[in-house]
Write a structure and sequence with these properties.
Layout: E1 7-16, E2 22-27, E3 33-34, E4 37-39, H1 46-58, E5 65-70, E6 75-78, E7 94-104, E8 121-127, H2 131-135, H3 141-151, H4 156-159, E9 174-175
Parallel strand pairs: 1-7
Antiparallel strand pairs: 1-4, 2-3, 2-8, 5-7, 6-7, 8-9
Length: 187
């Protein structure tokens, strides 16, 4: 489903722990890291798509998270020309996204990157809230910055003053979960 301007509807997910650190995952079989995200089906609301993508990409269910907020309206980014599928009609020039901020409520043992036959991610870690804005692939940086700027006031740990627990790399903990397939769908 691509709109009249060539943008594919999509949802993005910022999953935050109690300490304000966020879930950051590496695309299976690739070097790129990103937040969970994915396209919307024609019969889904953004919230429904978010819960489906959350389950597919992390194995998490609604009871494992609390929705703290979402960006108002769509945030858009354009794909570089080299990544556009020219033989596809209509041509997709980019994605328009609603971003959700989720509070992670469960034990980390419930995270399952192998929840589907073709996992999106093969490893994850928890990083400083702003780390992804400067470390995602370049063409997504502006939309990440806009989403994080809007969602930051909703993160309880970032509203409170107190000592942080980050290191210089932004890395604290993470894991490789389950068997990994090299076949992936690309959002």
């Amino acid at each position: 489903m691509i709109d009249a301007d060539g943008f594919r509807p999509n949802v993005g997910i910022v999953l935050a722990r109690d300490d304000g650190r966020v879930f950051w995952a590496r695309r299976a079989g690739q070097d790129g890291w990103q937040f969970p995200q994915g396209g919307m089906n024609t019969d889904e609301t953004p919230l429904e798509a978010m819960y489906r993508e959350l389950a597919e990409e992390t194995g998490l269910q609604p009871e494992h998270v609390d929705v703290l907020g979402a960006t108002p309206g769509w945030l858009r980014y354009r794909l570089p020309r080299r990544l556009r599928r020219r033989n596809q009609r209509p041509v997709c020039v980019g994605q328009k996204q609603v971003w959700f901020l989720l509070h992670f409520l469960a034990d980390e043992s419930v995270v399952r990157l192998d929840a589907t036959e073709h996992p999106e991610f093969d490893v994850y870690r928890w990083v400083d809230f702003w780390y992804p804005a400067n470390n995602v692939i370049a063409f997504k940086r502006r939309v990440y910055q806009r989403a994080l700027r809007h969602l930051e006031p909703l993160v309880p740990a970032l509203r409170e003053e107190g000592p942080g627990s980050e290191d210089d790399s932004g890395n604290e903990s993470g894991g490789r979960i389950g068997p990994i397939s090299s076949n992936t769908d690309h959002d």
